[in-house]
Amino acid sequence: MNGIFVRILDLIERGEVRISAHGYDELAADGIFVRDVMESVSAGQVIESYPDYHRGPCVLVLQYDRSNKPIHVVWGIPRNAEMPAVLITGYRPDPKRWSDDFVRRIA
């Protein structure tokens, strides 16, 4: 399992989690409930990893809501910090831009 994601899951388990204002806005725009994201994160699949991102290491995770609809969530940890896990953004992946299983970009 991806090391960044393992750290993020540990932080979430300990309650060290924050949702960015942008994250709230994007989730709301796509009708995604925070509860669904939080409940499904442990079953998430890392599809892209950005260990050297300038704001801190982060990962793009494929998760599913309670209706089994896909969600892409970017989780990160602030640069030069140990915590918290930050939900940076979340959205419904566009089927025109992703493979049928939503794990590979196609456009």
What is the structure about, briefly put?
With 107 residues, the protein is α+β, with helices and mostly antiparallel strands. It is built from three helices and five strands, in the order αβααββββ.
Textual characterization of the structure:
The chain is α+β, with helices and mostly antiparallel strands and 107 residues long. The chain has one domain. Helices cover 25% and strands 28% of the residues. It is built from 3 helices and 5 strands. The protein has a 5-stranded mixed beta sheet with strand order 1-5-4-3-2. Strand 4 (70-76) and strand 5 form a beta hairpin. The longest helix is centred in the first third of the chain and has 11 residues, at 3-13. The mean pLDDT is 97.
Determine the structural class based on helices, strands and strand pairing: alpha+beta
- Secondary structure: number of strands: 5
Low-confidence stretches: none
Number of domains: 1
Spatial strand order of the main sheet: 1-5-4-3-2
Strand fraction band?
25-35%
- In which range does the helix fraction lie? 25-40%
If helices are DSSP runs of H or I spanning 4 or more residues, what is the number of helices?
Answer: 3
What gap, in angstroms, lies between the N and C termini?
A: 27 Å
The H/E string reads HEHHEEEE
Quaternary structure of the protein:
single chain
Query: What overall geometry do the principal axes of the alpha carbons give?
Result: globular
Biggest β-sheet strands, sense, barrel: 5 strands, mixed
Q: For the CA atoms, what is the radius of gyration?
A: 13 Å
